[in-house]
Amino acid sequence: MAGKFYGLGVGPGDPGLITLKAFRILEEVDTLCVPRSSSDRDSLALQVVTGLTGKKYQRLELSFPMSRERTVLEESWAAAGEEVARKVRRGHRVAFVTIGDPMFYSTFGYVLRHLRSCHPDLEVETVPGVTAMSACASLSGVPLAEGEESLAVLPAVYGLDQLEDVLKRFDNVVLMKVNKKVEEVAELLEKLGMKNRAVYFSRCGYGDQYVTADLDSLKGRRLDYMSLLIIKKRGFSGNTGGETGGLTG
């Protein structure tokens, strides 16, 4: 059997949000790529997949350091791409499982770029997944955008210097991975008179998911990496109270 590489989005955390196509492919592949940023951090995507199928997979752990050094990152992407290519050329059907969508802020995109550049003959298929912001919008009962409204999505770690300008130009804003920047964002929103127009989401789709519109309640808390903030100029109403679970102190 010819080898093939898949990028599979497994949704934001709830196993019930995996698509039928992704589930079918999980039944067919023999190897799962497990992206890891450190040796002691479990793959969230793998946690979602576990229990959905009764298969025993080979695991191909790919190391992606938490670094902003472009050279370091490019070396890790290339090394991961070469490991994948070796597996696929040996006839393995390999799936890179990723939280959310594989083409939306996912390391899969960097591996895919390397394969297209250095191994263009390898067969690759990408299967989209439900994004965290879509799941959070559904949980809160408020659309991300309607009619002629505009929407901007920013990574909080890199995009805060642009946030004030973005908030002035766009109707709705999503800040991804906002856990370490919540207090800075809250200060800016208060300055702009928009503090009551934001909702914080943590671990949406997991048993300990948490939602709150009270940004002040997050001060001094240790917040989870899997978090985001939705800001709407026209206000945010709906189910914005705390959900099951809570925050760690």
Describe this structure in words.
With 249 residues, the chain is of the alpha/beta class. It contains seven helices and ten strands. Helix 2 links the parallel strand 2 and strand 3. Helix 3 packs across helix 4.
Task: Provide a brief overview of the structure.
This protein has seven helices and ten strands.
Task: Determine the strand fraction and express it as a percent band.
Answer: 15-25%
Alpha-carbon distance between the two ends: 52 Å
User: Globular, elongated, flat, extended or rod-shaped: what is the shape?
Assistant: elongated
Our Rg estimate from Cα atoms comes to 19 Å
Briefly, what CATH class of the largest domain? Answer: Alpha Beta
Largest sheet: 5 strands, parallel
User: Number of helical segments?
Assistant: 7
Strand line-up of the largest beta sheet: 3-2-4-1-5
The total beta strand count reads: 10
String of helices and strands: EHEHEHEHEHEHEHEEE
Sheet/helix structural class: alpha/beta
Could you say how many structural domains there are in total? 2
Give the fraction of residues assigned to helices: 25-40%
Question: What do we call the CATH topology of the largest domain?
Answer: Cobalt-precorrin-4 Transmethylase, domain 1
Spans with pLDDT under 50 lasting ≥5 residues?
241-249
What do the pLDDT scores average to? 88
CATH architecture of the largest domain: 3-Layer(aba) Sandwich
